[in-house]
Amino acid sequence: MKSDATGAALKVAMVGATSVLGRELRRVLWDRRFPLQEITMMGDGEDTGKITEYGGEAHLVGELDPEKLARADILFICEQGQAARHAMTAAAAGDAFIIDLADAHADADDPVISMDINAHALPTHGAAHIRAPHQAAQILSTVLGALGKGTTILEVRGTAITPVSDGGEPAVEELYRQTAGILSCGEKPERIFSRQVAFNAVPHALMNVQQGWPDLDARLRGELSRILDLEADAVSMRALVGSVFHGISLLVSVRFERPPAPAVRRRRLSRAPFSFGPQTPADLGASQSIHVSDLGDEGGGRVGLWIVADNLRGGCVANGVAIALALAAHVGEGS
Fold first, then answer.
1. What residue numbers bound the domain in which 156 lies?
2. 206 with 263, same domain?
3. CB neighbour burial string for 155-169, b if at least 16 within 10 angstroms, e if fewer
4. Please, what sign has the CA dihedral across residues 170, 175, 179, 185?
5. CB-based contact 131:106 (threshold 8 Å)
């Protein structure tokens, strides 16, 4: 296929191609005309043998192939689990850049990259594992990168309301069934969430305790502090699971050394990729903008913000593809 990107065509492997993240990644790679020599989709269990597509052409999800993984230039990880771990091990034996979109292997030494903020931290040699931040951290850091020009961000406090699609297709299906069950006075399945999420909001911290979910609060604090170069105690974030299928929302208070004036904030947040004005997840539609509402000065150098964006393409996948495009120039340089 033709590509708008510069550099040689690349051998790309993908684990989790049929997941929510994987489907969106395939769309964005095609839309961005990513320079591909070949794309290989792999998995295990019930994923193996599934027919999926890329650019309108059918592709079979095959079993993990260590030899193909070792020859890959870039490996995208789109889901957690055993297949992802095995694929990363096999790819690391070669010279692949591993782009982890699903937090499948969290290591304190791995760079967490938001291309809008800290692209300078991107490795330039293969056999590197690169973590894309959670969509809440990606979206918030992009907004703060624009607002923080010419001043210093001192503190970030807030709440992220995450959609059920953050938990993949099973979570989306469970919210659908819960909603239908409540409206029909029927059963409300609680296998994924351990409690009712439909018409409700549940702190992620409760999921940590009851279901063994990863600690999203700690992940957001750690990723934001690294991306924004803040002390760990300068960031406090809490996450809720909201009764929405798609779209992430953030209610935050940011303390600046010298807060930008309201007119400056509006001007900066009216340019792409931002859209200035009130929105909710229900209003997003197909919008790929980051919608920001300025809630005003709160005193003490603080500014309140309400932020809404698509959680897949705008919050995660576009950043992962931007990472891959930047890495393309370094493929084959060796470790």
1. 137-311
2. yes
3. bbebbbbbbbbbbbe
4. positive
5. yes
Q: Which residues make Cβ contacts (< 8 Å) with residue 128, sequence separation at least 6?
A: 97, 98, 111, 335
* Residues 6+ positions from 233 with CB-CB distance below 8 Å: none
Q: What is the CATH number of the domain that holds 230?
A: 3.30.360.10
Same domain, 155 and 294: yes
Question: What six digits make up the tokens of 191?
Answer: 């296998």
pLDDT grade, residue 128 (50/70/90)?
confident
How far is Cα 61 from Cα 31, in angstroms, rounded to an integer? 21
* pLDDT for 210: 60
Query: What is the pTM (predicted TM-score) of this model?
Result: 0.88
Domain count, the chain: 2
Which whole number is the average pLDDT over 197-201?
94
d(CA 328, CA 32): 14
Contact 163, 183 (CB under 8 A): no
Residue 2 within any structural domain of the chain: no
User: Which tens digits make up the pLDDT trace of 92-118?
Assistant: 888 889 999 988 877 767 899 999 899
